Structures are given as structure tokens and as C-alpha cells.
Amino acid sequence: MPKTIYLLLITISILTGCSTPTAQKDTPIKESPPIVKSVDIESPETFTLDMEEWLLPKKNSRVRGAPITHVMLHFTNNALRAPQDPYNIEEVYSLFEEYEVSAHYMIDRDGEIYLLVPEERAAFHAGKGHLLNYQNYESGLNDYSIGIELLAVGTSEEMLSIMPAEIYDSISPSDIGYTDAQYASLKELLDDILHRNPLIKSDREHIIGHDEYAPVRKSDPGDLFDWSRIGY
User: What does the record list as coiled-coil region(s) (predicted)?
Assistant: First the structure.
């Protein structure tokens, strides 16, 4: 299939939700927003995190309408447009701006954590989907969750709907999957999030992948993500 058609498909995929920046403007929950503390690396009440604040425009999120009970993990990249440099942080950030989508945190290949959206706001990362034990959350998980993006590329099968095989094959093997630094930073970030949000239980029912919530649409964090590296 010509690359121009794939570029059109990836634009459509982004606008309906995919593993590059996820357009997830679901229906807001009609509830009063809870008081939720943002990450404060100066506060003695939180774990100390080395974090870069790089907030997205407010149009990329909304006031949260429900208590936080879940964390959702994703991968993102700019591999379709730049397979030789899929993790240029400015270009990935610009994709979020371009499509008005978001996550609360992003972790780069070196383990640097970026705060993109304060936790008291609902980021646009989950979109349409459902969880077996939380039917009332259907297509509304943005309000109940914290989204974390890791800069990564999945398997060829997972990426096939996003890019043609020839582009995937041109990506360096070292850019496929996840890094040790990412796992270490993600574990530290999750510990901090759970410390500040006691309704999020430390188990696989509450720490989930996008592919569990929307298995037909999503493949991230994918088969290359090792849940045991973060204790699950």
C-alpha cells in the first residue's frame, strides 16, 4: 500500500484512538471533581521524583469528574514519520498538541519522566472501551484513570495497522521494545502515584494496559512489555 495511504490511515487512527498519541475525548462523567493533589516533588508527603514539567495546553484535558482508581499504560512514538528517529521528544510532544490528545506522564528512553497533565485533570488517553468489573466506566475511563505513555515501538504485528512493513523494518532493533531505564522510572512513578492515590490498588485489575480496555482498537503496551519488571 502506498505510503500516502498509510499516512491518511494513521491520521484517521489517531483521531479515533491508536498507539501513537491517543485521541480519547470520551463522554465526561457528570460528577463533581474530587480534590486530587498533583505531583509535587518538593512535598515531604510524596516520594522524591526527578521529573520534568512540560504541560500540554489545557484544551488537551478537562476537569476530572470522578475519583482516580486506575492507571493505564501506553506506548507512543513518531516512527511513521521518522523511523530513524522515532523518539525525538519535541516531535512526539507536537503530535499531542496537533491532535489535542494527552496523557498525564511520558517516560523517554533514558527514563526521564515528563509531567504533561496534572493529575486533578482528566487526560485524553483511554477513549472508548470497557473493563469487565467496572461496567459503569464504559467509555469513561479518562475520568477515573491516570495515563502513562512510554516511548516505545511494539512488535511488527502490533504496528501493522499504523505503518507499512517496510517502514517498521527500517527501525533500529535497539528502538524496539522498552529500556531498563524506562522500567526503573515507571516503577518509581507508579509507587509515587499509588502513594498519593489510595483508591488505586497495586494489582493488575487497577494497573492496566490500553489493550485490556480496548482490545479491538489497541495493542499497547503490547507483548514486548514485561509486567514482571514493575512487580506484576
Answer: none
Residue 203 neighbours by CB under 8 Å, 6+ apart: 232
pTM of the full predicted structure? 0.85
Of 142, 148, 99, nearest to 123 by C-alpha is 142
Please pick, among 31, 100, 149, 212, the residue that the annotation labels catalytic.
149
Q: Is the pLDDT of residue 180 over 90?
A: yes
Query: Residue 134 above 90 pLDDT?
Result: yes
The answer on pLDDT for 22 being more than 90 is: no
Residue ranges of the alpha helices (H) in the chain? 3-16, 89-99, 141-144, 156-159, 165-169, 180-196, 210-213
Cα 137 from Cα 133, distance rounded (Å): 9
Task: Provide the CATH number for the domain around residue 208.
Answer: 3.40.80.10
pLDDT single digits (tens) 216-232: 999 999 999 999 999 99
Q: How many whole angstroms separate alpha carbon 46 and alpha carbon 40?
A: 7
The grid coordinates listed for 95 are 503530535
Quick one: pLDDT band at residue 11, thresholds 50, 70, 90?
very low
Specify the number of domains making up the chain. Answer: 1
Grid cell 503530535 in the structure block, residue:
95
For residues 110-127, give the mean pLDDT.
Answer: 98
Q: Is 205 helix (H, G, I), strand (E, B) or coil?
A: coil
Range of the domain at 42: 3-230
